[in-house]
Structures are given as structure tokens and as C-alpha cells.
Write a structure and sequence with these properties.
76 residues; alpha+beta; 3-stranded antiparallel sheet; 1 helix
Length: 76
């Protein structure tokens, strides 16, 4: 698992992938929404990373590779 990355916008709101490495509640009220969904495609026999709008972002036979890709993608 990579390090936690928190970006703050000009209004002071932080944005990040949820992590328990940092107690995010100490920063204020949490508003959590799903950044992506990782699910298994039976037909392709691969794990897929989908964004909330239904766009396929990435796929791989390994779920752990998809999780690592998701971390890297959203923390750039």
C-alpha cells in the first residue's frame, strides 16, 4: 500500500482515497463517495476498475494489481 496523499483545494477541503493510515476524522467531518469500483468480469476472467460514470479504467487478472493501479491513478 502506498502512502496517503491528501490534496486540499483553495476552500480548504481535503480530497484523498480513504485510508486508515491517518485518522481523517481529526481533520473534520467526512463526506465519502466511491472513486471507483473493482469487480470481477466472469467472461474475461479479469478484475476491472470502473469509475462511477461506468467507464472502464483498467483491467488485470490480478485484483492486487488493480488495487495498486487504483492507488497510483488516484494519487497522481
Amino acid at each position: 500500500m502506498s502512502a496517503a496523499v491528501i490534496r486540499f483545494d483553495t476552500g480548504g477541503t481535503g480530497h484523498c482515497l480513504y485510508t486508515e493510515l491517518v485518522d481523517l476524522k481529526t481533520l473534520g467531518t467526512l463526506d465519502i463517495c466511491r472513486a471507483s469500483n473493482i469487480k470481477f468480469n466472469q467472461q474475461a476472467q479479469e478484475w476491472e476498475v470502473w469509475n462511477p460514470e461506468g467507464k472502464l479504467l483498467y483491467s488485470n487478472a490480478s485484483r492486487s494489481v488493480c488495487l495498486a493501479w487504483e492507488q497510483q491513478y488516484f494519487n497522481r
